[in-house]
Design brief:
alpha/beta, 8-stranded parallel β-barrel, 7-stranded antiparallel beta sheet, 11 helices, 25 strands, globular
Length: 504
């Protein structure tokens, strides 16, 4: 059996884990909203039409914040269409996804849903077709107590108290030619800076996320972030990152290594943020909002046929990736990567939450189930709260076509409240188990509380409504502490959670 070694010390810290890194995303796209979270007439719908089965699964994930309403959708969205009596709300053609938007779910409904989900709203504003005026108005509508036009309209529409939205995205992917209202870096930087300025004038307590480049592979990447931050440094608090990975080539070793690429992406953006801070002699540190991340590729070919047809359906089934076991392994490594950068990544949103490239799937009029990627996210959200520790990790490596030699073991640890430690580890070796030796002598009186394992012999295995537990976590062998050391077997191709608690 191969061997790996990990040394942990509570004095070697990465930083506090911001609970918002376990956020998610719901866009008015496909069936994310309609027949996803909202389906009046469903046997499990509540009085507002929200599916109780979905709410239960969202609460199980422990999602503290949900980005809404987009995404590409927001760049053509008039937020006023979604307030007031439903019978008076217009239907609009959504040019982002060539669909028809009913506006049955707007600000009031979504804020109500977020409360029921034990979550809060990360709201995006339209900087594609709109700008500064609409930006100030929506903050006044959502957050001002009363006594002004927009705040009194909110009260008239049924919400006496402000929604208190504290985190705002200044547009979405504005460097992408696919975006409605696509802009150059300088064009976007000016409107984002001015919109953000007046938004904070109305509510100084809010935080703002500036659009970074749409992905690491965009030709604009790097120069875009620098240009935007040089203009908007004094206004914004975070810069966004978006990145998706796929395995269309069927190369599992390279696919599972993409967390290395994600790690490099984060380090590059941190460098740009710090360079701008230094150039401006600034005291404010710009942190990161990785507000779109996931695996996405399974549905691409099918979806293109819909876009080409231009039939403008309401809530068509789009981006409905059926996730495999190997997808769950990469999601686990992506979560580990986020924790490894907990000092700078303060917000992150798995894209998305229900039906659209999502951990939760529903059938219209029927049941809901958890996809394979549900479990690593749930485990990290549940047990990855506290202080991220900086491990010394030595692991055997394997060769990939694109990224060279990559460690077989990807791992990080979090010191939890109460003095316990949780280790998250992925063994990416296709064939061999690995004995992971944990040196925990810096911690006193720890015992193994639980070892959770996610594994399947078939990397293509999926969960379905008919077979929802095809890929599901099981109890691992764990082990016993001896002299502050623990050796745990990481099965080949497995996600592992080793929970260590202080003995009474």
């Amino acid at each position: 059996m191969k061997e790996a070694r990990m040394i942990l010390d509570r004095d070697y810290r990465i930083g506090e884990v911001d609970r918002r890194i376990y956020g998610s995303f719901l866009e008015h796209l496909g069936r994310a909203i309609y027949t996803g979270i909202y389906e009046p007439g469903h046997p499990l719908a509540d009085e507002q039409g929200f599916r109780l089965d979905v709410l239960g699964l969202v609460r199980k994930l422990g999602v503290p914040i949900v980005r809404w309403p987009g995404g590409n959708f927001v760049s053509g969205y008039n937020w006023e269409d979604g307030v007031g009596p439903r019978e008076g709300r217009p239907k609009r053609l959504d040019m982002a996804w060539f669909s028809t938007e009913s506006n049955a779910v707007g600000i009031h409904e979504f804020c109500d849903w977020a409360k029921k989900a034990d979550s809060s709203v990360m709201m995006a504003i339209n900087l594609g077709t709109r700008g500064v005026d609409a930006a100030r108005n929506i903050v006044e509508y959502c957050n001002h107590p009363g006594g002004s036009y927009w705040s009194d309209l909110r009260r008239q529409n049924g919400a006496q108290e402000p929604f208190g939205v504290k985190l705002w995205c200044l547009g979405n992917e504005m460097d992408g030619p696919w975006q409605i209202g696509h802009k150059t870096a300088q064009e976007y930087a000016r409107v984002a800076s001015e919109a953000g300025k007046v938004m904070k004038w109305i509510d100084p307590s809010i935080e703002l996320v500036a659009c970074g480049s749409s992905s690491l592979t965009m030709p604009t990447f790097g120069d875009w972030e620098r240009t935007v931050l040089e203009e908007a440094y004094d206004t914004v608090d975070y810069v966004s990152l978006h990145q998706y990975y796929g395995n269309a080539a069927g190369d599992t070793p390279t696919f599972l290594a993409q967390s290395v690429n994600m790690d490099a992406f984060i380090r590059s953006v941190v460098s740009i943020c710090d360079a701008v801070q230094g150039k401006k002699h600034g005291k404010k540190q710009i942190n990161l909002s990785f507000d779109e991340w996931n695996v996405w590729y399974h549905s691409n070919g099918r979806d293109q046929k819909y876009y080409d047809s231009r039939v403008w359906r309401e809530a068509p089934p789009l981006l409905e990736d059926d996730y495999t076991f190997e997808d769950a392994l990469l999601v686990g490594s992506m979560l580990i990567t986020l924790l490894r950068h907990a000092d700078r990544v303060k917000v992150a949103c798995m894209a998305q939450l229900v039906n659209v490239i999502a951990p939760i799937m529903t059938r219209a009029g029927g049941g809901a189930w958890c996809q394979t990627i549900f479990y690593p996210f749930m485990h990290a959200s549940r047990y990855g709260r506290g202080t991220a520790l900086l491990p010394v990790l030595k692991s055997p490596a394997y060769e990939t076509k694109e990224l060279g030699a990559v460690p077989c073991v990807d791992a990080v640890a979090v010191e939890n409240e109460g003095g316990g430690v949780t280790v998250f580890a992925v063994n990416k070796d296709l064939h061999e188990d690995i004995a992971l030796s944990l040196d925990l002598r810096a911690f006193e009186n720890l015992r193994v509380a639980e070892h959770i394992v996610l594994h399947h012999d078939d990397v293509g295995a999926k969960n379905t409504l008919e077979n929802p537990d095809a890929v599901a976590p099981v109890r691992g062998a764990g082990g016993a502490m001896e002299g502050g050391r623990l050796t745990v077997k990481l099965g080949n191709l497995s996600w592992n959670v080793i929970r260590l608690e202080k003995e009474a």
